[in-house]
Design brief:
single chain, mainly alpha, two-stranded antiparallel ribbon, Phage virion morphogeneis protein
Length: 173
Amino acid sequence: MNAITYEDRAFYDLLQVFDRRMLKNALKKAYRAEVKKMREIGLRNLRSSGLKVSSDLEKGLRGYVYSRGGGFLVSVKARKANKNGKGEKGMHLTRRGVKKPILMWAEEGTPMRRTLSATAKSRKLRKAHSTGAMRGYKFLEQSEDDMYKTAEEDLANELEKSVNFYAQKYGFI
């Protein structure tokens, strides 16, 4: 990423007035705006990847802003619900009513799988057969270049907008 230098003394003085919490909030606001743009890039590539996309799958592509303001990422990793049933993300409800991390599998692909020839619970023998594999669509990998370019171009502008927003909110401007 290219380093950007500001010659604007007023902007620098405004940053000096902010305390740590306000600076972190301004930075996280800028990150959230960037993550939203990057998620849209990922969604565009997901829709054009050839995978049958539903709104359930689109919700699995999520952007994270790190809680301490250290950065952000866009991911397809799924998260199961906790014991209270809350916090589930990226899980797709199948036709049989089972939740599966389909989007994560679609991004990376899955290895070839086979059933076992005998079950552990019974002595009944059966033939093993292949259950197939899912090919990797790599839609997130294809959108990385666009995401980096967007972040380089727009992050400084988003940060400036965010700092001005908080400066007006707290009465510094």
